[in-house]
Design a protein that fits this description.
The protein is α/β, with parallel strands linked by helices and 487 residues long. It has helices at residues 8-35, 38-61, 63-67, 71-93, 109-137, 142-188, 193-211, 213-216, 279-283, 315-322, 335-344, 365-371, 388-392, 405-413, 430-443, 464-471, and strands spanning 234-238, 241-248, 258-263, 268-273, 305-309, 327-332, 358-362, 376-382, 415-425, 453-456, 474-479. The chain has a seven-stranded mixed β-sheet, sandwiched between helices. β6 (327-332), α11 and β7 (358-362) form a beta-alpha-beta unit.
């Protein structure tokens, strides 16, 4: 009779299995964002739903499993299959040479792409089959079962904030498998002891594997992402990025020793030349700004109060110091980068961030500006841009909440009487910034908005490579008062 065999262990089992499933789904979203691109990470949701849907069809057609198979044995076996297939499918994903940017030039990619995502489907199929079976047999207790389903799913979602920084991307996937194996132990401990014991052994082995998963199950990064061909000095994960720090010696691509951060295996990069032992000695050799043409933001200003949005590795901070800023507020959203700069590897910055007039904050720029009671003589944001969507071909203009009209209203409200906003972006996006700036100026009564705006493109180049770089480099200035002829 449906529901007659449901007991407390089934509530605990469904709680664990759902926690494992959601933890796996979120972990794969982050992993695929690193190994491929962000839009492939979103496909994890679709593939998970495909697995659940396929399991429902299978359960509907498999009458014996649905109606007569021993419940506990079946649930224990399916949960164990979820755990084993999670690790196996993740390992296989790293072996499939899927290259999304070769779909039109390499016919085999048309076969590798569905294989790649069908591999992702497998663990979700087993999870869906176990949950569907339990809900079918326990229909008269569905309210309680579903409540524990939701609680487990919620825990799995919340756990990613602790599991991912601790175990990394591969380790998080393995931890999801471990939790699934624990569900197998709970389901089978009474009526399927051999399966439960095997699942317990698998859980212990998985926990050990999770501790070394970053090296034992290394990620295979698509060839379309660039990162230095050397071993990173430091690597760490948080819930929205993987950061790898590189100490790059002087060479073909670096004029001098450099320290840099690669974000999500090549989605974005921020770096600065090595400043140790004292950034002042390095700064004394500079004849040009570190980043683009940031000196235009400081024209005519004496000891300006500066706000830097997206300070990254710190080159804009060094520029601000060089051009005599009296007070520098630097905002960087990624705590891993800020920890490396100010604590873990602070010697490489030669004391730059130890200056009493330099203040580094881990925050989202727009909310920080909105909360700030201060005004600034210059608000600087140089290429706070991830090329994830642009390089993937997904979007020509990547949406960014620091570039909206409302965001510019916040910046404008925090400018001093003669303050200036300086943004750099790829050239194709400058007209959009100018249009946004014009709207803000007109809303504040500017009679001639053009007198408050200035834009420039990249420096002229002699070869194709430099020309491409120029197209990626352009700037816009918005000044609260009209520019003077001298400016």
């Amino acid at each position: 009779m449906a529901g007659s065999s449901i007991s407390r262990r089934h509530y605990v089992g469904v709680f664990l299995l759902c926690a494992a499933t959601l933890l796996l789904e979120l972990s794969l979203t982050r992993v695929l964002s690193v190994t491929l691109w962000y839009h492939f990470g979103f496909l994890v949701i679709s593939t998970a739903l495909l697995g659940f849907g396929a399991s429902g069809v299978t359960l509907a057609l498999w009458r014996r499993l649905r109606e007569t198979a021993p419940l506990d044995q079946s649930l224990s076996a399916l949960s164990l299959l979820f755990g084993v297939s999670t690790v196996a499918s993740f390992w296989l994903l790293q072996k499939i040479p899927f290259d999304p940017f070769s779909l039109l030039s390499d016919p085999k990619q048309l076969l590798l792409m569905p294989l790649y995502f069908l591999t992702v489907v497998v663990p979700f199929f087993f999870a869906g089959l176990a949950l569907g079976l339990l809900f079918t047999r326990g229909s008269d207790k569905i309210n309680r079962l579903y409540a524990f389903d939701l609680l487990g799913a919620g825990l799995g979602c919340g756990a990613i904030a602790l599991v991912l920084p601790t175990f990394g991307g591969a380790g998080s996937v393995v931890i999801a498998a471990v939790v699934g194996a624990c569900a197998s132990v709970v389901f089978g401990w009474k009526a399927a002891r051999p399966v439960a014991l095997g699942a317990g052994a698998a859980a212990v082995a998985g926990l050990i594997l999770a501790l070394v998963a970053e090296t034992a199950l290394p990620l295979t990064i698509t060839a379309n992402k660039f990162h230095p061909p050397i071993k990173p000095t430091y690597s760490a994960w948080n819930i929205f990025s993987r950061i790898q720090m590189y100490d790059r010696p002087k060479g073909k691509h670096t004029k001098a020793p450099e320290v840099g951060f690669v974000i999500d295996a090549g989605t974005a990069y921020t770096g600065i030349q090595l400043l140790k032992p004292d950034f002042r000695k390095f700064a004394a050799t500079l004849t040009d700004p570190m980043d683009f043409d940031s000196q235009v933001a400081y024209l005519g200003k004496v000891k300006p109060r500066v706000l830097i949005i997206g300070s990254g590795a710190g080159s804009q901070v060094l520029d601000a110091v060089q051009y005599g800023a009296g007070d520098i507020t630097a905002i960087e959203i990624n705590p891993i980068i800020n920890d490396a700069i100010t604590h873990r590897f602070k010697d490489r910055w030669g004391g730059l961030f130890d200056q009493p007039n330099v203040h580094l904050f881990t925050a989202e720029a727009r909310s920080f500006v909105r909360r700030s009671p201060d005004t600034y003589d210059a608000i600087v944001s140089e290429h706070t841009i991830s090329n994830s969507a642009i390089a993937s071909g997904a979007l020509a203009l990547t949406e960014n909440y620091v570039l909206t009209k409302e965001a510019f209203e916040d910046y404008y409200a925090h400018l001093s009487a003669d303050g200036v906003i300086f943004f750099t972006r790829p050239q194709d996006q400058i007209p959009r910034l100018l249009a946004t700036g014009r709207e803000v100026l007109e809303a504040h009564g500017a009679k001639d908005p053009g007198a408050h705006l200035y834009a420039f493109g990249g420096r002229p180049g002699k070869d194709a490579a430099t020309t491409r770089q120029n197209r990626f480099s352009a700037g816009m200035l918005l000044k609260k008062t009209p520019f003077t002829a001298n400016e």
